[in-house]
Design a protein that fits this description.
The structure holds 2 protein chains of 2 kinds. Chain A is of the alpha+beta class. Helices cover 42% and strands 21% of the residues of chain A. Chain A has 3 domains: 3-70 and 178-200, Winged helix-like DNA-binding domain superfamily/Winged helix DNA-binding domain (Arc Repressor Mutant, subunit A, Orthogonal Bundle), CATH 1.10.10.10; 74-172, Winged helix-like DNA-binding domain superfamily/Winged helix DNA-binding domain (Arc Repressor Mutant, subunit A), CATH 1.10.10; 223-477, BirA Bifunctional Protein, domain 2 (2-Layer Sandwich). Chain B has 4 domains: 3-69, Phenylalanyl-tRNA Synthetase, Chain B, domain 1; 81-275, Phenylalanyl-trna Synthetase, Chain B, domain 3 (Phenylalanyl-tRNA Synthetase, Chain B, domain 3, 3-Layer(bba) Sandwich); 281-347, 2-Layer Sandwich (Phenylalanyl-tRNA Synthetase, Chain B, domain 1); 366-550, BirA Bifunctional Protein, domain 2. Chain B is elongated. Classes of the chains: A alpha+beta, B alpha+beta. β8 (274-276) of chain A pairs antiparallel with β21 (412-413) of chain B, so a sheet runs across the interface.
Chain lengths: 483, 551
């Protein structure tokens, strides 16, 4: 390296590189820890500095130095606290002579520990065994009070010889770990650079091509950014937002939605139950009676109903919201205006095990609209509209479906620009048993949409768990959701 | 949602039509509210969506529906039933244990392997789903040639008889069967409490079955060699057992069996009648209602055609259509259900979507707007937003914070899938601490926030739970301390125009003297610098200060 080149290089050294270099004396050998200590930089920064200085050939980083370290295993730690098996046995035997069974019970040792303890004591001649009775020997009495070698080792494994340690490793009390370390030493160029550094003082030039440390800004969580966009779309389409609830009465989750209490469909909607609280309050008795009538006889609707005895107790049980449609049900009991479009984005809960395709809780978009002239074809239209507005899908497919609260019912599949055909929504025309009994004079359609999968497509992720990412680095580096 | 396994070839044979691509098959299955679950070679799994149509839970049933929808054979399916001389006598002794039994004979059956698979599958699915785990429906199928009429259905005290249940060689006592036989263990609770157990016996005194648990090994074994079948259904509701019987019998009928009716002699009700009874149900639908709900302008003739393809027989009467409905359908509660059948026949994808004019303006909740403003303030404070789950564990919410397990109560799941997600969180910050613990390898400072809910039990609320909206901020890094935390609280409060007061409190998670209750009007929060031991519990290697606040 030419002198002028070296000078330029020194001029471009960053503050932390300069700090580190100043701490490196000739012939001194440093480690990452020692450098972190003397420079008062955090280890991450020191690690980076070492990389940079090595690249610039100002330091030499030696090959790995291996060092064996011994540390206590979990059992080792327990033994240190409670006493080694042999120590506990001697203590018990000091009181009186015992047989095997008594000794094991008294010391509460498991059979493995008991056997190894007994072995050690026999080897040391601390005990004698006669016709099943164990007694402390004279030697044992003499040494019972002092600290034994095994205990010394456990207290201070690093100061003991390898032979001594071996036995305790075999007994699973100690373990050996190989620790690797870099040794860092200033190079010839480094020494020259340090001299130049002293002459130039704080003068610094900047290599504009050099990488800089990342700066992390404050940012909204990507999934929330996506949900904000969805809300905006829905507002543009004229929808009014309903309140989200995590806990609902079964009345809203099932009964208002004409899900019979004694029907398998109710168990099929795999749902969580609560241990506490168990029951909530039902709305006005007039409304409850209407729903009861709907189930039992069809009520005001020209329907047979389900023909069973409806229970208030079951309806008043509370549960984690299993689908956002429960909020539609609540709104319909509170009263609806028409024409009007409603929506809610609700966190929902179903017993699933968390994996790459299932979340323990997920967001569902639920909508309903009421107004004169609404029919099954209106639903198909709104499905098509949402497919385009929310997912950017131009092709849609409708398939037959069953929901207890709609008739006719329909499912929506879309051809997603990235993912191909996928099922995204289901709904239908609300059953007359619901609308007529609740005094909703105009027809209504209701549907639910799983937005998690759409979010995955929008955020470009394959593992659904990233929607609730617990990786800070991923969150920091994620791109803003614009459209 | 039942999944039906069958052979594609067998299904095609039953329908009388071949499907040369999976798409075409899928399209056809749509008519039965079904879809292909999987298709490997000839092995087909069909997912049937409708929970109220047990008749669709077999290859025979799906074929019957599709035949009509595809126009191969329309209108009410015809079932030929001859009266047999076999009597089934229901004795009074069984009335309190499981009161109803209906039965049918299926003669000259030509059982093949696939036939047997379908029959057993249908028996299982109907008992499990429609029959609510055999409580409402238990189905028994026997080798008729091994039984001597009349057949008796009676109640017997468990100690009085023994018989060898299916797959057992030796005789077992009735309670022994409930304890030893897999089906006894599974369904024993359905009869255990009764003094008399339900028993099917023939006129020689041979025990044929103990419904709804298990058949005897002698009469109850049906194989490819069996020629004539005795089929019975037991339960608590006459209508339900008859529907289940008709579903079963319709399936064997469609495989070519000669069906004969059994005379039921009910000694309690002093009634005699023959089953199966395929007499169609009668209902009607208004033409105008169909068009209004479908959003169409179909002619009466068109509607009749659509309904005939859904297996109805139609008679036009003025503005209405009188309908005859297959006896096994019990899912038609309202005219709307008939409309769906018409629309399905027409084909959902043949309908033109049509916009409905609605003069409406969209509006979001104040709560949503508030969240957005808080979010943008936090972003302005250079905080990274994080999203965690509402479901969590007591370990995080209590133990790791050094709180008392006895004193802390939560909205708690009765049937959790894992202890990790068994309660609803009360506080957000333990979840964020967990997050920080997982990210200690990344650059500090790690200043994060979450806007979410904290759930507290509250007997006064309508659900017994108060769902509080909360903002939680944690600053974590070399310089994080109470002072830094308070600066963040102050910045947020100023920006939101909140007046906050601090009152020193003690909390097991926070350093003494560095923890305070935040009060903004009637809303409560907490701010504090975490104890080292607590940071260690969450594997966090830097100091951290927490702010959590209702809004």
């Amino acid at each position: 390296m030419q002198n002028s080149e070296l000078k330029q290089l020194v001029l471009e050294l960053s503050e932390i590189e300069r700090t580190a270099l100043k701490q490196l004396g000739i012939h001194e050998i440093h480690t990452l820890e020692s450098l972190a200590q003397t420079t008062e930089l955090n280890k991450d920064a020191v690690r980076r500095v070492i990389e940079w200085l090595k690249e610039k050939k100002l330091i030499q980083v030696q090959d790995l130095q291996r060092k064996a370290e011994y540390s206590l295993t979990k059992t080792g730690k327990e033994n240190l606290e409670k006493g080694l098996p042999e120590r506990r046995m001697i203590q018990a035997l000091q009181e009186k002579t015992l047989n095997f069974k008594e000794l094991q019970e008294k010391t509460k040792l498991n059979s493995g520990e008991f056997a190894s303890g007994l072995g050690v004591l026999k080897q040391k001649n601390f005990i004698t065994i006669q016709s099943g009775k164990i007694e402390i020997s004279e030697v044992g009495k003499e040494f019972a009070g002092s600290e034994w070698m095994e205990e010394k080792i456990l207290n201070n494994p690093d100061e003991c010889s390898l032979d001594q340690i071996q036995g305790l490793i075999k007994r699973g009390l100690l373990e050996k770990k190989e620790v690797t370390e870099n040794s860092i030493q200033i190079s010839e160029f480094g020494i020259q650079a340090k001299e130049i550094l002293e002459t130039i003082g704080s003068q610094r030039e900047f290599n504009i091509q050099a990488p800089v440390q990342p700066l992390y800004l404050g940012k909204a969580q990507p999934y929330n950014q996506f949900l904000k966009l969805i809300r905006k779309k829905l507002l543009e389409l004229g929808f009014t937002e309903m309140k989200e609830r995590l806990i609902v009465q079964e009345f809203y989750n099932f009964d208002v939605l004409f899900q019979p209490q004694n029907h398998p469909a109710r168990q099929w909607t795999d749902s969580y139950q609560l241990k506490q609280p168990t029951h909530g309050k039902l709305p006005d008795k007039k409304i409850v009676d209407k729903i009861k009538a709907a189930h039992e006889t069809g009520g005001l609707a020209d329907s047979t109903g389900w023909g069973y005895e409806w229970s208030t107790d079951i309806a008043s049980r509370v549960m984690p919201t299993a689908h956002g449609t429960a909020m539609d049900a609540r709104q319909m009991c509170e009263g609806v205006e028409f024409p009007k479009k409603y929506f809610v984005i609700n966190r929902c809960f179903r017993p699933d095990v968390l994996d790459a395709t299932h979340l323990v809780e997920f967001n569902q978009l639920d909508c309903f609209m009421v107004g004169p002239g609404i029919n099954f074809r209106s639903l198909l239209h709104v499905f098509k509209q949402l497919a385009y507005e929310i997912a950017g899908a131009k092709e849609v497919k409708f398939t037959t479906a069953y929901f207890p609260f709609t008739e006719p019912s329909c499912e929506l599949s879309i051809k997603h620009p990235q993912l191909g055909w996928m099922e995204v929504a289901g709904g239908g025309v609300l059953r007359p048993e619901i609308t007529e009994n609740l005094g909703i004079k105009e027809p209504a359609i209701a549907w639910g949409m799983g937005i998690d999968r759409l979010a995955m497509a929008k955020l470009g992720i394959k593992d659904i768990r990233y929607l609730f990412s617990d990786n800070l680095d991923w969150l920091r580096k994620s791109k803003m959701v614009v459209e | 949602m039942p999944t039906i396994e069958c052979s594609k070839k067998d299904l095609e044979k039953l329908i009388g039509k071949k499907f040369d691509s999976a798409e075409k098959l899928e399209q056809a299955l749509q008519y039965a509210k079904g879809g292909i679950g999987s298709l490997e070679g000839d092995a087909l799994k069909i997912e049937v969506q409708d929970a109220n149509r047990p008749d669709l839970w077999s290859a025979e049933g799906i074929a019957r529906e599709l035949k009509a929808r595809l126009g191969l054979e329309t209108g009410l399916p015809k079932f030929k039933v001859k009266k047999s001389k076999v009597q089934l006598i229901i004795e009074k002794s069984v009335k309190k244990s499981r009161p109803y039994m209906v039965a049918a004979l299926a003669k000259n059956v030509k059982i093949t392997e696939e036939y047997l698979v379908q029959m057993i599958q249908l028996q299982e699915k109907v008992g499990l789903t429609y029959g609510r785990k055999r409580k409402e429906v238990g189905i028994g199928i026997y080798d008729l040639d091994k039984m001597k009429a009349p057949i008796y259905y009676k109640g017997i005290k468990p100690r009085e008889i023994k018989f060898a249940p299916l797959e057992f060689e030796r005789d077992l006592g009735l309670n022994e069967i409930l304890e030893l036989h897999p089906k006894g263990k599974e369904y024993g609770h359905l009869i255990k409490a009764f003094e008399y157990y339900p028993i099917v016996m023939d006129s020689t005194g041979t025990v044929c079955a103990m419904p709804p648990i298990i058949n005897s090994n002698y009469t109850g074994k049906v194989t490819e060699k069996t020629k004539n079948l005795f089929i019975e259904v037991t339960g608590w509701n006459k209508e339900i057992v008859n529907i289940a019987l008709n579903v079963m019998v319709a399936a064997v009928h469609d495989r070519g069996a000669d069906i004969e009716a059994v005379e039921i002699v009910d000694e309690t009700e002093k009634a005699k009648y023959f089953t199966p009874n395929f007499e169609p149900k009668k209902t009607k639908v208004k033409i105008e209602f169909i068009n209004k709900l479908a959003g169409m302008n179909w002619s009466t003739k068109e509607i009749v055609k659509l309904l005939e393809r859904a297996r109805y027989n139609c008679t036009i009467k003025g503005k209405e259509i009188l309908l005859e409905v297959p006896s096994y359908r019990q899912d038609l509660l309202h005219e709307a259900d008939i409309v769906e059948d018409a629309v399905i026949s027409y084909g959902y994808n043949n309908l033109e979507p049509k916009a409905t004019e609605m003069n409406v303006v969209g509006k979001d909740l104040l709560e949503t707007r508030l969240k957005e403003v808080i979010r943008s303030t936090c972003v302005g404070l250079q905080l990274q937003e994080v999203l965690t789950y509402n479901l969590t564990s007591k370990e995080k919410q209590v133990t790791k914070l050094g709180l008392n397990l006895q004193k802390e109560i939560f909205a708690e799941i009765a049937n959790p899938m894992s202890s990790e997600y068994a309660i609803f969180r009360k506080q957000i910050f333990p979840e964020l601490l967990e997050f920080l613990g997982k990210n200690s390898r990344y650059e500090y400072p790690q200043n994060i926030f979450e806007i979410g809910k904290g759930l507290e039990l509250d007997a006064k609320s309508e659900t017994g739970v108060n769902e509080k909206n909360k903002i939680c901020i944690i600053i974590c890094g070399r310089n994080a301390n109470f002072n830094e935390g308070k600066r963040h609280l102050q910045a947020l409060s100023n920006s939101m125009n909140w007046d906050y007061e601090l009152k020193k409190i003690e909390h097991s998670a926070f350093k003494p003297g560095l923890c305070a209750e935040i009060k903004i009007e009637n809303r409560i929060g907490i701010i504090g610098e975490l104890k080292e031991s607590i940071l260690k519990n969450f594997s966090i290697e830097m100091p951290a200060c927490v702010i959590e606040l209702e809004f």
